[in-house]
Design a protein that fits this description.
With 335 residues, the protein is of the alpha/beta class. It is 48% helix and 16% strand. It folds into 2 domains: 129 residues, Rossmann fold (3-Layer(aba) Sandwich), CATH 3.40.50.2000; 179 residues, Rossmann fold, CATH 3.40.50. The chain contains 14 helices and 10 strands. Strands 7-6-5-8-9-10 form a 6-stranded parallel sheet, with helices on both faces.
């Protein structure tokens, strides 16, 4: 399902539903379920949800984390309105119809789902963002210095971190353009840590152009990655500019927990940039304008990054804790 081409991902999406239903009947047939919690993708589990709802009379809460098939159509992986699109769109509609409540990651997601699915009742769709247990990590100056020394990161520069998946949704070609635009800057240093299908493009850039202001790491164990985050100054989010669906990267939460301000470099559809700016813990710029990105980078030099990090942690406590996620789900079901 992850780290593979869209074709393989599509085939796996078709297979996973029947496989899960067989496993449930074989190993869990004696159990009774009152509540089904499901996150998308995949959207092809509608048959499984229908089966359990009918068998057990269960309530079904859909946590909408990605909007298929429009997302892959936006990136050109399938043709808009073609047979593959229509097949997955039918699956999407069936899944939405089966759900007793649909929780979306942001207000823009709520508006999108209702406007593109006019048959849905507005009182069955609401906000249910990504959440985590609060775990605010801290570090000392000595620890920051040691971690930077470990990876050869300059001690005297503002360090911008991108950590996570390097895939087509992240718009890696634009990220490379941003790195090239910042090459002559003497204050910025960029750390890229992750894996994904587009990682070879980043690797080729580093090997061929040998940028002195970029460190590329092919993933790290969780403990080492958490130490690296605390040694950086600003987190970065990237989304391909072609998206018409309002994605909301979960990576935001790890940056907030670490007290990092955030640059949201995204398409016009998502509202994550507006949320970071309104919360006082970040900046936004379009993911098709390298000059706008560089302008935001320079703003970070003058900003009170510690105060912005504190604002991000406060926003996390106000909106993104697991306890709040639980309360949201229960209120939705009680409706």
């Amino acid at each position: 399902m992850t780290g593979v081409s869209f074709i393989k991902k599509g085939i796996a999406s078709l297979q996973i539903g029947p496989n899960i239903q067989k496993a449930l009947d074989r190993y869990c047939g004696h159990e009774h379920y009152d509540l089904i919690l499901m996150a998308t993708p995949p959207i092809t589990l509608a048959g499984v949800m229908d089966h359990i709802k009918k068998r057990d009379g269960a309530k079904f809460y859909l946590m909408l984390k990605d909007i298929w098939p429009q997302g892959i159509a936006d990136l050109g992986a399938i043709s808009q309105g073609g047979p593959v699109y229509r097949y997955f769109r039918a699956k999407e509609k069936k899944l939405y119809a089966l759900a007793d409540f649909i929780g979306c990651m942001s207000p823009a997601n709520v508006d999108y789902v209702l406007s593109h699915n006019p048959g849905l009742r507005a009182d069955r769709v609401g906000l249910c963002p990504n959440t985590e247990e609060p775990n605010f990590r801290t570090t000392t100056m000595e620890q920051r210095t040691a971690v930077r020394a470990r990876y050869g990161i300059p001690q005297d520069k503002t360090v911008f971190l991108y950590g996570g998946n390097f895939g087509r949704p992240q718009g890696i070609p634009f990220l490379l353009d941003c790195l090239r635009r910042c090459r002559e800057d003497r204050q910025a240093y960029f750390v890229l840590c992750g894996t994904g299908t587009e990682y070879p493009k980043l690797q080729a850039y580093v090997e061929q152009e040998r940028p002195e202001h970029v460190l590329l790491l092919n993933g790290l164990p969780r403990k080492e990655y958490d130490e690296l985050v605390l040694a950086c100054d600003v987190g970065m989010l990237f989304l391909d500019y072609r998206f018409t669906i309002p994605n909301f990267p979960s990576r935001l939460l790890s940056y907030l927990q670490a007290g990092l301000p955030v640059i949201s470099c995204t398409d016009p559809a998502t509202d994550i940039g507006e949320i970071t700016e309104a919360g006082g813990f970040g900046w936004k710029c379009p993911s098709n304008d390298t000059e706008a990105f560089y302008t935001v980078v320079k703003k970070a030099y003058k900003a009170d990054l510690a105060a912005m990090g504190d604002a991000g942690r406060k926003y996390f406590l106000d909106h993104y804790t697991a306890e709040q996620g639980y309360e949201i789900i229960m209120r939705g079901l009680e409706r």
